[in-house]
Amino acid sequence: EGAGDLAVAFEQMKARLLQEGLFDRAHKRPLPRIPGRIALVTSPAGAAVRDMLRILGARWPMAQIRILPVRVQGEGAAEEIAAAIRWANLHQAADLIITGRGGGSMEDLWAFNEECVARAVYDSQIPVISAVGHEPDVTIADFVADLRAATPSNAAELAVPDQNECYGWLEQMEGRLTGAMGRERERFARLAAALDALSPLKVLGRGYAIPQRSDGAVLRSAKEAMPGETLRLRMTDGKVSCKVIEPAG
């Protein structure tokens, strides 16, 4: 009879909050890809917090983890959970909040069905992952949260990337970058060689000279030379001065 009463209360609460829009997908915030600070709103003594700390530490040890200790069942538990979520928002204590606990009966999990918790999660400006019980367990907090995890361990997996996968991705990027740089260097060498082949200095190296006036203008035709004009001949190893004796014939 007690379980039946809880089930009825659950459905009534679910219907009312659904009608108010607390479950709307449009309200759900995206989770940060790499959260620098994570707040765990849970019991500090349960197996759930140990599992989350272990997985978070293995997957992404760079994240700073802050435990906001609360009771997760019994009288006053819901108020403590809601207050911790609001405190984290007030002090901007995290980039991501995970709230939840390990499995239990519907009565054990009831704190996460209370309206005060639902509204604290809904009002949170910090994204919230709800991780209550085992996979079959569903609470009101799950519907309101930005993401529902099957278990606390699953929440830790969803919260942060896997450092080993990131290292593997970085190694792939390093290989691609190294290959691209090797291709950029080869292309540069080809272009430099082609440019060098077109350089006037290469022409001078074959015994030719470039006639220039005193202002540096290059003579492109013998007809441009004026009798008596002093020209400079630029050669591969320097310049010489000469005077035009006869006009071009």
Q: Can you tell me about this structure?
A:
The protein is α/β, with parallel strands linked by helices and about 250 residues long. The protein is built from 8 helices and 8 strands. It has helices at about 1-20, 45-60, 75-90, 115-125, 140-145, 150-160, 165-195, 200-205, and strands at about 35-40, 65-70, 95-100, 130, 145-150, 210, 230-235, 240-245. The strands form 2 sheets. A 5-stranded parallel sheet has the order 2-1-3-4-5, with helices on both faces. Strand 7 and strand 8 form a beta hairpin. The termini are far apart.
How would you summarize the topology of this molecule?
Layout: H1 2-20, E1 37-42, H2 47-59, E2 64-69, H3 77-90, E3 96-101, H4 115-123, E4 128-132, H5 140-144, E5 147-148, H6 152-159, H7 163-197, H8 200-205, E6 210-212, E7 230-235, E8 238-243
Helix pairs in contact: 2-6, 3-4
Discrete helix count = 8
The coarse overall form would be rod-shaped
Strand order of the largest sheet: 2-1-3-4-5
Q: What are the low-pLDDT stretches, counting only 5+ consecutive residues below 50?
A: none
Summarize the structure.
By secondary structure, the protein is of the alpha/beta class. It is built from 8 helices and 8 strands; from the N terminus they run H-E-H-E-H-E-H-E-H-E-H-H-H-E-E-E.
Which features would summarize this protein structure in a list?
single chain, 249 residues, alpha/beta, five-stranded parallel beta sheet, three-stranded antiparallel beta sheet, 8 helices, rod-shaped
